[in-house]
Amino acid sequence: MTPSPSDSAALALERMRAVARTRWRLAGVLTLSMVAVYFGFLSLVAWSPGTLGKTLAPGLSLGVLLGALVIVCAWVLTWVYVRWANAVYDPMVAEQRAALRTAQATAQATAQATAQATAQATLQTAAPPAVPRTAAVDTSTGNRT
Amino acid sequence: MTQPETSIGEPNAVAIAFFAVFITATLGITYWAARRTRTTDDFYAAGRSVTAGQNGLALAGDYMSAASFLGIAGLVATSGFDGLLYSTGWLVGWPVVLFLVAEPLRNLGRYTFADVVAARLNPRPVRIAAAVGTLATITFYLIAQMVGAGGLIRLLLGVPYEIAVIGVGVAMMAYVLFGGMLATTWVQIVKAVLLLGGAAMLALLVLSRFNYSPLQLFAAAAEQYGNGVLAPGKLVQNPLDAISLGIALMFGTAGLPHILMRFYTVPDARAARRSVFFATGLIGVFYLLTFILGFGAMVLVGPDAIRAVDAGGNMAAPLLAELLGGRPFLGFIAAVAFATILAVVAGLALSGAAAISHDLWANVIRRGEPKPGEELRVARIATVCLAVIAMGLGVVFKGQNVAFMVGLAFAIAASGNFPALLLAVFWPRTSTAGAASSMVVGTITTLGLIALSPAIQMDLLQHESAVFPLRNPALVSVPVSFAVGILVSLLRPDRDGAARFAALERRTLLGSEDIDESPSGP
User: DSSP 3-state assignment of B361?
Assistant: First the structure.
């Protein structure tokens, strides 16, 4: 038995959600890393200023070094995200967009066929075609079957 | 060396010449942009035609205000390491913008960040609340820039304070009124290039005296003023104050309306992402440069000499420029500082005008169906009103502490705008009542705690003590805003909230253009 068109649309939607969740997960991890780095640095400033005053080399205190490293960390984290998004996320989104378009087109064709069949069979007022036409876009599709 | 030999405060021919060139060039850009600004898309979002690289520069231009250029250099020059706290705090806001808001914002909104918060909620209460948060942030930021502009221009060019404020207001009005976002973007780009170029040149001149080694520069500073200048100093007295300021700086950036608005000028989410990457790089370089400039001014000019010219230390970079490059270079740096202020106020005025015309007029008063051309007209009227108000407030608040006002603007952005924005795109159960009350309570809590803080109670009103001990309220107001948003959402859910979030999720991922082009769309 082949899956009904609304099933494949629901499946496409579910996959899309998985892609979105992947992005939020990475975004969350990277945000927390930035928070940890910056507030770690700030905590040292606030509660242990003496530590940061230690001189590592003439002119280089631990505080100046760590402060510069916070800026470098911000660069590295944004670079990691942009790399990932360009290499992994964008292709995943493109794939989902294509899958959703296909599912939409199938659903639309089937719905129109069904509507015509219903209209011919009953010879009464035809089923409103507007409903199945937008069904694939309407995200409540998943609950219809 | 308490009273340095300086021409600061006298009219400087080179500064005036550079300044005239800048004004002529930017008005030329405005004329060019005006002929391409016809629709609301053009006016608010430059027709979505800005490239990622251009937007990266423009974002950096919007962000690198005179407060950071002159203020941080001055802070480092007079108190050493402590200035680094501000530089790092202002930079770490950018990764947060990239990870959490840039892409959802581009995919969900059209012109303002309220578009995003309202995308799946009942628009009117949310837009009213967002407009309040936007205008509160914009107002304090504008006052800070105006007051800073008046003071700086008086010092740098010898023009009276009031004339300087009015001049800045008129130029800003011209850019925004006629050229909209396209002109504002290019003014930002020109300014960012000038500012980065000027700061890099100055830093190179400083380092040339220290064998091009920053460490030798720091060592010279430590030798003259003690190792204390390389360690946390008197700026951090209360540990919680430092943490609170950090929260405001880190999360405030992701709630600044004029920054968020820039993401609508690029064609898609991918370009939005790349533009933040460029901006983070440029801004980081800029803050590293200001650190060099600050220590350079400390060693070569001296903290006492800097304070003798301006008690706040703001003249550290200009004094350094005069010392190293003579009056012509001072003139160039002065003109760059002025350009910086002009560009920032133009961006602020545009986002304030968008909050009034797009959020309040078109979507609240006209319920999303303004008459043709009406929204643009209201935006232009709002621009004129904002410019007049900004000039008035600039004169009224003459002599106020600029850094304090900017800190206040960041605190409002972090607690009024950011929590609702994040909850709206991320948490499925966020409701209309929850988002609106988070924005209103966040803004009011911030303003209330500031009123009770030592800055107002002790410094301004001369009371013995303050009810609220922290100078920056973000440590309390940001969690309060999140808590209110979450609690109210749970208590007052929207009826069809789940279905609306599912639709929003799809748009967050695929962007709105996919829906508009979709053959089965309405």
Answer: helix
The chain A residue lying nearest B214, using CA atoms, is A59
Q: Residues B311-348: pLDDT tens digits?
A: 778 888 989 999 999 888 988 888 888 888 888 899 99
Instruction: Give the domain extent around B434.
Output: 13-511
Write the residue in B95, B281, B499 that is nearest to A140 by C-beta.
B499
Give the alpha-carbon dihedral of B129, B131, B134, B136, to 10 degrees: -80
CA-based nearest distance A123→chain B, Å: 26
Residues of A in contact with B288 (CB under 8 A): 68, 71
Please state, in angstroms and as integers, the Cα–Cα distance from residue B134 to each residue in A106, B89, B192, following that order: 45, 21, 24
Amino acid (1-letter code) at residue A143: N
The answer to whether the Cβ–Cβ distance between A137 and B277 falls below 8 Å is no
Tokens describing residue A134: 């937008």
Q: Give a yes or no: residue B219 inside a domain.
A: yes
- Residues in B touching A105 (Cβ below 8 Å): 519
Q: Look up tokens 């992402």; give the residue.
A: B273
Greater model confidence, A13 or B484: B484
Cβ-proximal residues to B145 (8 Å cutoff; 6+ apart), any chain:
B65, B66, B67, B341, B344, B345, B348
Nearest Cα neighbor of B179 from B334, B52, B55, B353 is B353
> Cβ(B453)–Cβ(B468) under 8 Å?
yes
Task: Give the tens place of pLDDT for each residue, B354-379.
Answer: 999 999 998 998 888 888 888 899 99
Is the model's pLDDT at A135 over the cut of 50? Answer: no
Sign of CA dihedral B346, B351, B354, B355: negative
φ, ψ of residue B323 in degrees (nearest 5): -65, -40
Coil vs helix vs strand at B468: coil
CATH number at residue B396: 1.20.1730.10
Alpha-carbon gap, residue B337 to B103, rounded angstroms: 32
Residue with tokens 């991320």: B426
Q: Do B230 and A96 touch (CB under 8 A)?
A: no
CB B181 within 8 Å of CB B42: yes
Domain boundaries, chain A: 5-138
The pLDDT assigned to B522 comes to 32
Buried b (16+ CB within 10 A) or exposed e, A26-43: bbeebbebbbebbbebbe
- Does residue B517 sit within a domain? no
Is there a domain that residue B5 lies in?
no
Number of structural domains found in chain B: 1
The Cα–Cα gap between B84 and B233 comes to 11
> Is pLDDT at B32 greater than 90 in this prediction?
yes
Q: Would an 8 Å CB–CB cutoff place B242 in contact with chain A?
A: yes
B465 found inside a domain: yes
Residue of A26, A34, A78 for testing the chain B interface, max B β-carbons within 10 Å: A78
Backbone CA torsion sign across B503, B506, B511, B516: negative
CB of B207 within 8 Å of a chain A CB? The answer is no
